[in-house]
Amino acid sequence: MQGSKLYVGNLNYSVTNEQLEKLFSDYGEVKQVNIIEYKGFGFVEMSNPSEAEKEKEALNGSDFKGRTLRVDEAHPQKRRPKRDYRRY
To answer: Which residues contact 85 (CB under 8 A, 6 or more apart)?
Structure first.
């Protein structure tokens, strides 16, 4: 794993940043947690890539608040082309 930032998907909408930080802190030092509200996913940044890899292996497919988590390495957001709405 190259980076230390993880994508966490299939989150229960009631999960808070604090709850997710507590879950991930059992496996290493959490630098930052950011849940995207009403989308069911978020991001957790660990202190280094090896901790992120351990987290991914330990928590991917695990149950948290009634949902099966999907944990993977986060990738940069792809740029979307600008749309010219004047044509429509």
So the answer is: none
